Amino acid sequence: MADNNSAGLSPLGKKSEYVSVYTPSLLCPIPRHESRTPLGIKSDSLPFSGVDLWTGYELSWLDGQGKPQVAVAQFQFPCSNPNLVESKSFKLYLNSFNQTRFNSLQEVVQTLESDLGIASAGPVSVEVMPLSKAEQLHLGHFPAESIDELDVSINAYQPAPAFLSADQQASIVKESLCSNLLKTNCPVTGQPDWASVLVSYRGCPIERAGLLRYIVSFREHQDFHENCVERMFVDIMKYCQPEELTVYARYTRRGGLDINPYRTNGVVDVSDLRLVRQ
């Protein structure tokens, strides 16, 4: 769980004024090292690369003539950026665009990249799409084999990495497995966060029932989305020892934003994907 001192500075769980005039100070950064240190992850030698993909479905602003514009935005935060941005503060910040005039779409993009880069202390890539282009984000499923229909008994609902194992005597395989049964909880409010998760790897075969039990064991765990995925990556590497590993979770939206952390020790190749629950 993130350090309560940092999370306590965020607007989570507090009554908030919804500001509709541009206010970049609304953004609340959370240092990633607070959650990484207990996992043995060192900021100067990350065991993975990847990005946090956010989709904003409720972005609106005024053009130079005062006419409202609406769009869908996609944000990419490299996981090497020292800070993550707390989600409620991100929503409040985007709301501050509602009654703010921008002379061009490019000005909107540049403003978002600059403010979010300052908050996360690193580069941020932003694409703002008119609704006509956003319609091309078709709903789908992970290109992977689901393990959700396995007949398993489960009674652990806090992260239980001991469920994980791989057959170290078997031949190397390359496969992608997925589950729609991931649920975690906000570390401040306790609200449920629903997600689907992809585990793609090359290595000795991971025992599927144990993997499913492990994924479900996050059901009562409280932490930010990004930290949950990094915990999964570290645990699977430790207990299953794959040669290559990617863990990719896509969470359902809240307040018009979804968060989709992607971690890999291979080539970062995040396809444009929107799952059916998103």
Structure explained in plain terms:
- The structure is a single chain.
- The two termini are 25 Å apart.
- The chain is α+β, with helices and mostly antiparallel strands and 278 residues long.
- It is elongated, with a radius of gyration of 19 Å.
- It contains 7 helices and 12 strands.
- An 8-stranded mixed sheet has the order 5-3-2-11-10-9-8-7. It has a two-stranded antiparallel sheet with strand order 1-4. A two-stranded parallel sheet has the order 6-12.
The residue ranges in which pLDDT falls below 50 over 5 or more consecutive positions are none
* Spatial arrangement of strands, main beta sheet: 5-3-2-11-10-9-8-7
Helical content (DSSP H or I, runs of 4+) = 10-25%
Largest sheet: 8 strands, mixed
Strand tally is 12
Question: What is the N-to-C order of secondary-structure elements (H for helix, E for strand)?
Answer: HEHEEEHHEHEEEEHHEEE
End-to-end Cα distance: 25 Å
Shape: elongated
Label the structural class.
Answer: alpha+beta
What is the subunit arrangement here?
A: single chain
The count of helical stretches stands at 7
Mean pLDDT: 93
Instruction: Please indicate the percent range of residues in DSSP E strands (runs of 2 or more).
Output: 25-35%
Which value, in Å, is the CA radius of gyration? 19 Å
